[in-house]
Design goal:
Shape: flat
GO cellular component, one term: cytoplasm
Keywords: CBS domain, Repeat
Strand content: 15-25%
Helix content: 25-40%
Family: Belongs to the 5'-AMP-activated protein kinase gamma subunit family.
GO molecular function: AMP binding; protein kinase binding; protein kinase regulator activity
Protein name: CBS domain-containing protein
Bound molecules: adenosine monophosphate
CATH architecture of the largest domain: Roll
Largest sheet: 3 strands, mixed
Order of helices and strands: HHEHEEHHHHEEHHHEEHHEHEEH
Number of helices: 14
Oligomer: single chain
CATH class of the largest domain: Alpha Beta
Structural class: alpha/beta
């Protein structure tokens, strides 16, 4: 985050019609390299729509209420505000480790009682003891470029990055920028990127070997362990022939945490999928012959968390948003 007095931000750009600079940057070359140039020319502030909401939790809020609010607003995590120091206090995230902590360290009754009373600040203390908190709270100033935000997201393996303004000693949480929002902004405002016509099979984007998968009967705890051990955000659920049946996502864990279902992590993942949040947006699949442009066009049109690559419904790979962003800023 930048220090000192921040410049007065310009009025936010609309997603449409296309921002002229982005058009110019891309229409001439139709190369992915132009996407990086475009991201260098625009700030995080440009991502903000005219009207939007920011969900911020005070660190004294009970964790249970925070979980309910996250689910109600369909977001995976939210920035925290410490009203004692009047400062941004990190992101509320990492419920998987909380669930694993209670599963291994305490009885169900104790866990229920503790969770009932746990404040976010208490959760942060547990996370700190477990060595799960980052040494510093990562944020970016709204006037830094989308390129800088992308680099930071990728370097720290983050899916979202809070925008925090600072004037003198006073901080304001402005919004949260995500990998999805950056890709969508690019796809919506730079039509040329949606015309990039190289097929995924020729681009080397995504993971196609040593995939972490589970079957419907895999115990949930094994899937949660895969999230942590493999540093991934989704595990495809396949049958014995490799047919994709579903995908268990990190977001699904929120529902589990709210329901207090952390006592039964031996349940098959298929059972946990039934508890999935009602606003589940579905799974996006693509094939190796889809082009980069087609994939970005899908991102422009609808919320996407990742693409599951299939051939005749059989799992071939995973193309995550971080894979796409990394390709676009490095080529
Ligand atoms: P993500 O957490 O979705 O940003 O993915 C991080 C990295 O892990 C990306 O390079 C993905 O291609 C890869 N990845 C995502 N899901 C899986 C999976 N189930 N098995 C193996 N690799 C994965």
């Amino acid at each position: 985050m930048e220090n000192g007095v921040s410049p007065q931000p310009p009025p936010p750009a609309q997603e449409s019609p296309a921002a002229p600079e982005l058009e110019t940057a891309l229409s001439g070359t139709e190369s992915a390299g132009a996407a990086a140039t475009a991201l260098q020319r625009h700030t995080c502030y440009d991502l903000l729509p005219v009207s939007y909401k920011v969900i911020v939790f005070d660190t004294s809020l009970p964790v249970k209420k925070a979980l309910a609010a996250l689910l109600q607003h369909g977001v995976q995590s939210a920035p925290l505000w410490d009203s004692n120091s009047m400062r941004f206090a990190g992101m509320l995230t990492d419920f998987i480790n909380l669930i694993r902590h209670y599963y291994t360290n305490t009885s169900y009754d104790n866990a229920l009682e503790e969770i009932e009373q746990l404040q976010i600040s208490g959760l942060r203390e547990i996370q700190q003891k477990m060595g799960l908190l980052r040494p510093r709270n990562i944020a970016i100033h709204p006037m830094q470029t989308l390129y800088e935000a992308s680099k930071l997201l990728l370097k720290d393996h983050l899916h979202r990055l809070p925008l925090v303004d600072r004037v003198g000693n006073q901080e304001t949480i402005v919004s949260v920028v995500t990998q999805y929002k950056i890709l969508k902004y690019l796809a919506a405002n730079a039509p040329a990127v949606t015309k990039l016509d190289t097929q995924l099979r020729d681009l080397g984007i995504g993971t196609f070997e040593n995939l972490a998968t589970a079957t419907a009967s895999t115990p949930l705890i094994e899937v949660l362990n895969l999230f942590i051990e493999r540093k991934i955000s989704a595990v495809p659920i396949v049958d014995e022939k490799g047919f994709v049946l579903d995908v268990y996502e990190k977001y699904d864990v929120l529902m589990l945490a709210r329901e207090g279902a952390f006592y039964d992590l031996e349940m098959p993942v298929s059972e946990a999928l039934v508890k999935r949040a009602p606003d589940f947006e579905g799974i996006h699949t693509c094939t190796m012959s889809d082009t980069l442009g087609q994939v970005l066009e899908t991102i422009r049109r609808m919320p996407v968390h990742r693409f599951i690559v299939v051939e005749d419904n059989t799992l071939k790979g995973v193309v995550s948003l971080s894979d796409l962003l990394s390709y676009l800023i490095n080529h």
